[in-house]
Amino acid sequence: MNLSAELSKRFRQNIQTYAIVLALVALWILFAVLTEGRYLRPQNISNLFRQMSVTALMATGMVLVIVLGNIDLSVGKAAGVVSCVAAFLQDDFWHKILPSFLQETFANQPALLDAILPIHPLTAAILSVILGLLVGTLIFGILQGYIIAYLGVPAFIVTLGGLFVARGLILWITQGQTIASDQAYFREIGQGRLDVTFGWILLAVVIVLLFVNMFNSRRRKQKHGFALPNIYLDLAMTVFFSLLAFAYVLVENIDKDTVKEGIQNAGIQVPVLLLGIVAIIMIYVSNNTRFGRYAYAIGGNREAARLSGINIQKQVFGVCVLMGFLASCAGIVLASYVGYGTIAAGEGYELDVIAAAILGGTSTLGGEGTIFGALIGALIMTSLVTGLQMMNVESSYQYLVRGMVLVLAVYLDVTLKKNR
């Protein structure tokens, strides 16, 4: 097959992915014109990626949930619960409640108290993260997953109930008050940046891995007798993604000498790095593991998957647990990034997460969707909100535009699938 024919074939196979990438580019150009170039300033681009990290973390899990033909309405408030748990631990438990309890309990053992107190900020941060992840995964992953998978209650109802439970938990934890979580070490999760030099080294490693992965993929296809794509096309795609990575690192490092209030304002942002790691893992899981491929098989034809021996209950349970864990990760980043746990924590995120997955090409009919598409979808949603805010558009109109974009995306998805 010649290069032009293969290009045409690949475009037809991935038309939805290419369409959303073009939509993102068009959106950036539009807002750049409307804001007289302010939209494409390095600082704003950097903020876009930081702001999308919470939504995108959950969107990577939502892809598999929707691929199965389910939905999760609790993810936003689940992240909110975890953010409030982490904030409570950081602000009250490690520095007030626990020290007071230990001082009363071991009042006659001053040497022991001196060894334990005060709790080191790094220890407090690590334990807050671990406990927050455990709480979120247990309630919104394992518990909800068991009810959906093994008790047969529809996911829509279970997660809707989970949404109300989460709101109640947030009110109980916060007691209607704002809880600070902007403590040392913990704040670095959502606000920290890597050293500029380390960022360039990381970029070099990523580019090398991209090329290694490309050649390994071609070698595996040849070993198993699959037709190899044109080498120049594979090289072009790898070079394209390498240039994207280079452009991002360049934008983040561009003001490397700027320091404000003792905080370095240059370098790859830690939440974006965490998102990148999660995205790579999720892409591998969805494309190269039985767990991921079984999810697509069930979403494509549930009965055929059952007859082929796939344990549907186990698969659904696993995806729910994974979603609960990713929502918990997003909650940790949210608490660190915002610096507070509030009664409004996670409000509305579930809609942005679902919209990001669907905008990214995840079919509402099940069986189709990509992690990469969900990342682009999350970036589109964040770009849309940021652009409208920079233009001082009223909040009411912002919600109208976001709603229309989501409905249009679903309509195009249904239309494309029917045509195929």
| Overall structural domain count | 1
User: How many whole angstroms does the radius of gyration measure?
Assistant: 23 Å
Mean pLDDT: 85
Q: List the uncertain runs.
A: 256-263
Main β-sheet description: 2 strands, antiparallel
Give a description of the structure.
The chain is mainly α and 420 residues long. It has one domain. It has 17 helices and four strands. The chain has a two-stranded antiparallel ribbon with strand order 1-4. A hairpin with a 2-residue loop joins strand 2 and strand 3. Helix 3 crosses helix 16, helix 6 runs antiparallel to helix 7 and helix 6 runs antiparallel to helix 14.
Task: Kindly summarize this structure in a few lines.
This protein is an all-alpha fold and 420 residues long. The chain is built from 17 helices and four strands.
Question: What keyword list fits this structure?
Answer:
single chain, 420 residues, mainly alpha, two-stranded antiparallel sheet, 17 helices, 4 strands, 2% strand, globular
Topology of helices and strands:
Layout: H1 3-13, H2 15-34, H3 42-67, H4 75-105, H5 110-116, H6 121-149, H7 155-174, E1 179-180, H8 187-191, H9 196-223, H10 231-253, E2 259-260, E3 263-264, H11 270-288, H12 290-300, H13 302-307, H14 312-338, E4 340-341, H15 349-359, H16 371-390, H17 395-419
Antiparallel strand pairs: 1-4, 2-3
